[in-house]
Amino acid sequence: MVPHDLDDLEERPIKGTAIALRADFNVPLTPAAQQEGAGQSTAAMVSDASRIERTVPTIERLVAAGAKVVILSHLGRPGGRQDRALTMEPVARRLDELLAAPVGFVPHTWGPGVRRAVGAAEPGSVILLENTRFLPGETANERALATDWAEWADHFVLDAFGTAHRAHASTDGLPRAVRAKGGMAVAGALVERELVAFADALEEPRRPFVAALGGAKISGKIDVIEALLPRVDALLVGGAMANTFFRAMGMETGTSLVEAEKTGVATEVLEAAASRLVLPVDCVTAPAIAAGAPTRVVDRADIPPGEAVGDVGPVTVRLFGDYLAGAATVVWNGPLGVFEIDEFAHGTVGVARMAADVADRGATVIVGGGDSAAAARAAGVATRISHISTGGGASLDLLAGKELPGVAALSARRSRHVAADLSSEP
User: Which residues are catalytic?
Assistant: First the structure.
């Protein structure tokens, strides 16, 4: 499915209309604290505004067109209850600093308070509503909540790729309710770019096409493995899920994390993949996966019974690097070790740097969100990657060939291939 985008929306007269913009402003906050010696509390602040910054182009475009931009987002996991520590107010302050247009904060998420605020807003203004997950109806995709929002929304824009794989009221119910009343529901600039990047990589990749998968469990990525195997020229597997493959091959895995119940699945994948599946040939092990633990590098066939695998070894890094060096398209999702701990970060950092080198030479390199994006930033190569996704779960679902509920709820065009130049994106 190819959804309508901002170009399609702007073909209509949208000046003065109210546009519900679902953003992903689930950003880290520095908690409020007492000012030393002053007896006063400082306000909570956004400590990393990158997610906010990536939606600014969509907001600015709608503001320039004279729309009333009403932003909905969640923050944290308040469990359907009010939680002052997770208010969107600090986000509104940070957004106000990033935009030329003033940003108003509405301490309500739904109901007459929101309708009054939207009604009083001027064309070209921006409003941020309170945390959508303060309402239990949000994650339950409650129809009444979506209908309430649709009362004031003339159109809907999805710019929250990180939540597009969730069928929530603000990502699924609201766009459908807006369309039912004759409005448009379209993809914002961020979501459109994400969809184009993955579509180009998966449907028309330049070859050789190499995918690298890491992470803890094969059960969380078996759909991705099965979907990618027929498409790629090589699938590199690291992380703890490689241990399950080792167990399926009859190898000792020590105290490593292994999904014993998935060894049958691993065996089937090994048989189907043949030489396209590339597993680590050496590992970094330790008596415990902890900072400061004594480590050793061993062949995968010599994992000590009393130790656990925490990272791929240096020979594997070079092996994976050989595959990456010859690739024209690379997709990477998941760390290859416990990269949060320095002793087990070498494999992930090494592969991140080699992926960046390949991108420098003209390959298209796409990094999934979540831990993969964090690893690219930790390795200092984020600005050299062709595309770093803003959604870990959503990117996994796309790689597995699944439909994203948030995208499926948008207005669809019958056919059109959208191309984008990814070369300039940090």
Answer: 51, 217, 370, 393
